[in-house]
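Example record

Each entry pairs one chain with its bound ligand, IFG.
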Amino acid sequence: MDHFELTEDTPIEVAGGSPEGRRIAVWLAALIGNTVETTPAVREADEGSEGAVHLDIDPASTDLGAEAYEIDVSRSAVSVRAATATGLFYGVQTLRHLLPPSVEYTAAYPRPLRLPVGTIRDAPRFPWRGLMLDVSRHFLPVDDVKRFIDHLALYKMNRLHLHLSDDQGWRIEIPEWPNLTEHGGRTEVGGHPGGYYTTAEYAELVAYADSRFVTIVPEIDVPGHTNAALASYPELNCDGVAPDLFTGTAVGFSSLCTANELTYRFLDDVIRVISGLTSGPYFHVGGDEVETLSEAEYTAFVERVQDIVTRYGKRMVGWDEIATADLRSGSIVQLWRPLWPGPGAEVSEGRAAAAEVLREGLARALEAGAGVVLSPADRLYLDMKYDTATVLGLSWAGLVDVRTAYDWEVADVFGSIPESSIVGVEAPIWSETLGVLSDFEYMAFPRIAAVAELGWSAPERRSWGDFRSRLGAQADRWDVLGIRFRRSPGVPWSNGLHR
Ligand code: IFG
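Structure tokens for the complex follow.
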């Protein structure tokens, strides 16, 4: 196989005048520098030189979409071209995948790094390729969230939805309402110490995500899933009595007092503070599993919260129950309830009811110009057990191994939704049963790679037979990165020789 040999003397060149391009060049040099004597030099050069890797952000490259890139490797030179910094970053991630897993070591001895000769021209199918971390049921400190942002970058995923509040914990400081975190952030499922992000820490996560071209989508789940807030402020409760902190795993029992004007002043403060710290255009309001309000009370509430989100310049995202409300163009419905015919009569009745509400509400939402993110629980909920032997996770939506997560097509169940309304896919990791980072990673790997390919590759370029062999080869890289992953059956996992 013809190849280009990368050594410490291979300069990384970036076309002049682009600070983002230079930052990406430095990132690539550092990656390569891990496994050669010294870090390759980064220098400005408008045209690629012999023996160099040339990176170019050329806005005039109108042949390339916003996240697209083109790689050309010859025996004597490498070039990566994109119209935007995002596209260039994704081209560099593909170079990373073309290099052996040992490139991920941070202090290895020198070894030849080879890139196969060829041309790659690539662009994503959907603009929303996401993961959700439930940091409320079990809290994840800042460094653990940063490590997940690195995982998303490795697979060109670009949305990290942070589920920042629920019954068991409020995880982000709101200066005007300090007790939300002082009291509401103190614990978590099982009664262990919880935790929260200060505004500075949340801003640090947003900046870290931006540097890897990941957009943070903050979620404050309302009106349900609010016991932590209700326990923190008696006046938020309709009867003025604050409930105890909740460390169990039941859902649906709590709701803000939608009849109380204070509730909307509270929400205005919360949405204003978090929106001001969030660089991305989205604010997720939750809206799921409300059992204590009438449909009229619920939809009126959703429409008022949508006005608040809009006031602070964000587009509202919500779980699919919000489809019964009047949504603005640009709002996004996150489909989560399982829609495949499931096991057991009662579950399929529930599914059928949800599907009916959804179909009816969804049709109106799509007419209003709302978009849809697909997170069907029986395909993409990564807290679902892999199989009956999986100790971690739940199984209410069924068992989901990597082939189940991968081997479906949007049209299979969502055929009634025009492709143009589908913004993308997202895999939630709910953490009722996940206590530490390695638990989250075990549930995410290998299924995160399936989600990434669902979001990125056109249907005609995807097949389980092809994916499974490429997936097996990822094991070496995950080993080097120290990721505890599940060796799902039916996948030819590589033998661990870190080439
Ligand atoms: N459904 C709840 C989550 C979580 C989940 C666990 C949604 C939108 C079950 N709501 O999924 O809070 O408990 O699988």
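The pocket of IFG is lined by residues 251, 288-289, 319, 336, 381, 383, 394, 430 (CB under 6 Å).
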